[in-house]
Specification:
The chain has a domain of about 60 residues: Roll (Ubiquitin-like (UB roll)). About 45% of the residues lie in helices and about 20% in strands. Bound molecules: guanosine-5'-diphosphate. Keywords: ATP-binding, Magnesium, Metal-binding, Nucleotide-binding.
């Protein structure tokens, strides 16, 4: 499964956040004997639509999609030089498919900041600089080899060209995802190098309770932080509050959440935004056995979606019977949705949309 690596400076609230995330680890809950890496958290993707479908179809159970987070300890200034924790840190982050930076925005004199003051902009700069320097080192190490291989006609000249463009961008201090957006290079050519800054980024700002909610001061505080990372996605949460919420039963959690001024836990937002940042989406199936969300890459076709359930479904794909969740719920039943003409027959070129409720027809 694709994973999101959680990184950040020491004392920003990573462990607090990670522990809250894993408080309802679905792997731990459903597969008590599975080997679970202590630094991996598999969390359900919140999807209120599943409970609604389960009521409509009288399903025995609900199976949400999941999002995997990896707690990557140890980024400090100098990590890119590969000393001490640095090497392990870089190896771990290389394996992640997206990077979630946790940034401290809360003020608390009892919690030391590594650099002595709370300064989100400076912290983002510190982390990005380490990642850019690590990539620069990787590219500089690879260039002589690539040059030799291109001379010997053993490598694609386009790869060498992309590596040179990457070196230039990184030397300018630019993460490669930015350079890609600016059209300076083609990421596909760099895949073999295992670079860090080509990965999608999202940001979690660990804020004071006063920065949550809808009052003007809170909105302004969040807007200021969002500006630091735009166009990347930002999530605002209070890690301590999240860990309290994770430990409460549903009623008490709802009450505490309402007091905080939030309409849903920050962790739910994090799971949703993280899932989308990985380039994933879901489609839904519903029946008496289960109502379920299935994970597919954004842009997947109907046969590819069928293949996630079973490879035979993809091989023998005939068509997909598709109704949008909203139409189905409006109609109140599959039969009524059909008689309203809301259920479509889609062929092998159909690109799946979010909220599609699907039944596949296939040859065995
Ligand atoms: P890590 O080093 O990034 O993993 O940070 P920790 O999660 O261990 O948190 C460091 C310290 O900050 C701990 O004492 C936490 O209780 C505290 N802390 C974490 N999140 C918050 C928060 O949102 N507000 C406040 N005031 N303290 C927090």
């Amino acid at each position: 499964a694709l994973t999101i690596g959680i990184v950040g400076l020491p004392n920003v609230g990573k462990s607090t956040l990670f522990n809250a995330l894993t408080a309802n680890d679905v792997l731990a809950a459903n597969y008590p004997f599975a080997t679970i890496e202590p630094n991996v958290g598999v969390v359900p993707l919140p999807d209120p639509r599943l409970a609604v479908l389960a009521r409509l179809f009288d399903s025995e159970r609900v199976v949400p999609a999941t999002v995997s987070f990896v707690d990557i300890a140890g980024i400090v200034k100098g990590a890119s030089e590969g000393q001490g924790l640095g090497n392990k840190f870089l190896a771990n982050i290389r394996e992640a498919d997206a990077i979630c930076q946790v940034i401290r925005a809360f003020v608390d004199d009892d919690v030391t900041h590594v650099d002595g003051r709370v300064d989100p902009a400076a912290d983002i700069e510190t982390i990005n600089t380490e990642l850019v320097l690590a990539d620069l080192q990787t590219v500089e190490n690879a260039l002589p080899r690539l040059e030799k291989e291109v001379r010997g006609k053993k490598a694609d000249p386009a790869v060498l060209e992309a590596a040179r463009a990457a070196e230039a961008a990184l030397s300018d201090g630019l993460p490669l995802s930015t350079a890609v957006k600016a059209g300076r290079l083609e990421p596909a050519h760099l895949r073999e190098l295992g670079l860090l800054t080509t990965k999608p980024f999202l940001y979690v700002f660990n804020v004071d309770p006063a920065s949550l909610g809808d009052d003007p001061a809170a909105l302004a505080a969040r807007e200021r932080l969002q500006q630091l990372v735009a166009p990347a996605e930002a999530i605002f949460l209070d890690a301590q509050l999240e860990s309290e919420l994770a430990g409460l039963d549903a009623d008490d959690a709802a009450e505490l959440l309402a007091e905080s001024g939030q309409s849903e836990p920050g962790l739910h937002q994090l799971a949703r935004v993280g899932f989308a940042t990985l380039g994933l989406q879901t489609y839904l199936t519903a029946g008496p056995k289960e109502s379920r969300a299935w994970t597919i890459p954004q842009g997947a076709t109907a046969p590819e979606a069928a293949g996630v359930i079973h490879t035979d479904f993809q091989r023998g794909f005939i068509k997909a019977e598709v109704v949008s969740y909203d139409d189905l719920v409006d109609a109140g039943s599959m039969t009524e949705a059909k008689s309203r003409g809301r259920v479509r027959m889609e062929g092998k070129d159909y690109v799946m949309a979010d909220g599609d409720v699907v039944e596949f027809r296939f040859n065995v």
